[in-house]
Amino acid sequence: MNEIYSGSYILVITYIDIILHINIYMKTKGSINMSQKSHEIDYEIIGSEMQLVEIELDPQESVIAEAGAMMYMDGSIHMETIFGDGTDKSNAGGLMGKFLTAGKRLLTGESLFMTIFTNNGSGKQRVSFSAPYPGKIIPMDLKQYNGEIVCQKDSFLCAAKGVSIGIAFNKKIGVGLFGGEGFIMQRLEGDGWAFVHAGGTIIKKELRPGETLRLDTGCLVALTKTVNYDIQMAKGIKSAIFGGEGLFLATLTGPGTVWLQSLPFSRLAGRILSNASTKSKDEGSILGGISNIFENR
């Protein structure tokens, strides 16, 4: 069993190394157009606790989304599955560039493919997207954040065509080993609108230079690239072991903007599984008791 785990670990590290080296190669070629302008889309957030976003597209405008996120669309919207994110950055290296982009998505646990929705009609058309679990949708105008946002994996929902969806490796080993949500995050780059989904109530905080915020790693949704992200051990042995918050906390240091969520999906799923397991055991004991009563009669 240990040999299997060791082999899997080596395979993952080797794959990451290949991705990083290909990425360096693509950058040295100088064939990537980083100044691609994103499509200008309009949107409306609908709902309160279980939100969806409705995107309005002018003729020939497009939006990209995670596979399975679409809720409904007008008749002139053309839907196409693509390899990569459809940007010049992913198409620049031909098949190798598309493989690089898709490979990066695999590291975050996402599908190799994305879906692009284009308005092929002569008038405005709408397409809407919703997340797979309760929560809120955060619209982000990437131009306001120097063209880049780093977010937790699985949080990206959709974006205007031209926004690049890649990966961000945290350079600090502590984050990789103890981060809870992993050290591989998603990087959204471009000058258009991107939409991120999070659970529960959303809090947006502006950190001043040197200001520090400590939090549960799962409660982090996104941050600007100027924010320093690290993992530190909780103070006090009793608090760490019996406090229920884990041995390690995320530490964010400004300046920059961070978005937090009150109900991470991992926390929600863990509570549901725990209660379901307890409930099935209780039901089993009750049914077993009733069965014994009838058998005794």
TrEMBL record:
Pfam families in the record: AIM24 (PF01987)
Superkingdom field: Bacteria
Record key words, sorted: Membrane, Transmembrane, Transmembrane helix
SUPFAM superfamilies registered for this protein in UniProt: TRAP-like
Residues annotated as transmembrane: 6-26
InterPro entries with a match to the protein in the record: AIM24, AIM24_sf, Trp_RNA-bd_attenuator-like_dom
Cited NCBIfam families: TIGR00266 family protein
Name of the molecule in the record: TIGR00266 family protein
